[in-house]
Write a structure and sequence with these properties.
339 residues, mainly alpha, DNA polymerase, domain 1, hpI Integrase, Chain A, 2 domains, three-stranded antiparallel sheet, 14 helices, 5 strands
Length: 339
């Protein structure tokens, strides 16, 4: 960067930084950066005309952006936190290179992260959902999400080579996501999930094995039936449609909502089937460390932060134990559920 920072518009620098990141991060990560910068950060700061020097001298200009997005545009705090991460990461490079004397993003308060509210299915609701989806194109997919707690990218990325019918195991080693890059939707296929812990092997239960064998036979029959019209690009993947096309993530989300609404099931996000799985495991007496390994979280704190609500039952037991040794313990006992 040859110009003085007083002559460089912050919005232009963000585009410059974005371009430099294209080959430095995964494509889906870059797609997220591009969406946030081009659709939100750049338009706002281009309209203001602030330079890098302006931001260094007055970090409040960054805070004004956060406030505008939340107060005027009604953007959620967690989304603005992502924008803050983009801005801070870009400015940090200038600070490390000695171009600016400090990172102005570190001198403003980012929004407070919103509490994570989990809306899940209990065991009865899951059982009802499995019945509703029996014979549906999403039958196998909802079982992988609700029973195994796999996330959508892991389900779509599941390959036949990941299923060991002899040792009765299912391995999670590949993910498929969709992202928008340069205005075009792109399929991103990766041989590793986000963390090493995400790569895991789970036992193959008989119910799932039966569905997988059925799916394999259907794919083989469809390939013969469609002949040259069958899409052979995704024969290694498990979740494909009758024509051989890989199931799209948007279809999973939209069809799940459609079938649930049609059958008057409680509305939850598809991803919350993963949280429902964790709840069932915890209610069955499985400890958080084992749940962490089952779900593929990188560390136990992630499991504890997301599923902190699971500890309530144990807290009630503890409270009753305390009440039992206090005077007049029979007069008042703690409630069995949260208000």
């Amino acid at each position: 960067m040859l110009k003085p920072i007083g002559q460089i518009l912050f919005c232009d620098y963000m585009l410059y930084w974005l371009k430099s990141m294209r080959h430095s991060v995964d494509e889906d990560t870059f797609g997220g950066y591009q969406c946030g910068i081009e659709s939100s950060i750049y338009p706002y700061f281009a309209d203001k005309g602030y330079t890098l020097a302006d931001l260094e001298q007055n970090p409040q200009l960054i805070k004004d952006y956060y406030d505008y997005k939340m107060d005027t545009r009604k953007v959620k705090a967690n989304t603005v936190i992502h924008r803050h991460a983009n801005i801070r990461k870009a400015l940090q490079e200038l600070y490390v290179d000695g171009i600016i004397n400090n990172n102005p993003a570190d001198r403003v308060k980012k929004p407070i992260k919103e509490d994570f509210v989990v809306n899940i299915y209990n065991s009865e609701e899951l059982d009802q959902m499995f019945k509703v989806f029996k014979g549906d194109p999403l039958e196998l997919i909802v079982i992988l999400a609700g029973y195994y707690g796999l996330c959508r990218s892991e389900i779509i990325g599941l390959k036949w080579e990941n299923i060991d019918f002899v040792r009765k195991t299912i391995s999670i080693k590949h993910v498929v996501t969709e992202t928008s890059i340069d205005g075009k939707l792109k399929l991103v296929k990766k041989n590793k999930p986000k963390t090493k812990a995400s790569t895991r092997s789970l036992p193959l239960v008989p119910q799932l094995e039966e569905l997988l064998v059925k799916a394999l036979h259907e794919q083989q029959n469809n390939a013969k039936l469609f002949g040259d019209s069958y899409n052979k690009d995704y024969t290694e993947y498990i979740n494909v449609d009758p024509s051989g096309n890989l199931i799209k993530s948007n279809f999973v989300t939209q069809h799940f909502r459609l079938i649930c609404d049609k059958n008057e099931l409680k509305h939850i996000r598809f991803h919350n089937l993963r949280h429902s799985c964790a709840t069932l495991l915890y209610d069955a007496g499985i400890d958080l460390k084992a749940i962490q390994e089952w779900l593929g979280h990188s560390n136990i704190s992630t499991t504890m932060n997301i599923y902190a609500h699971l500890n309530y039952k144990s807290k009630v037991v503890s409270a009753k134990a305390i009440v039992g040794i206090l005077p007049n313990s029979k007069e008042k006992e703690p409630l069995s559920s949260a208000n």
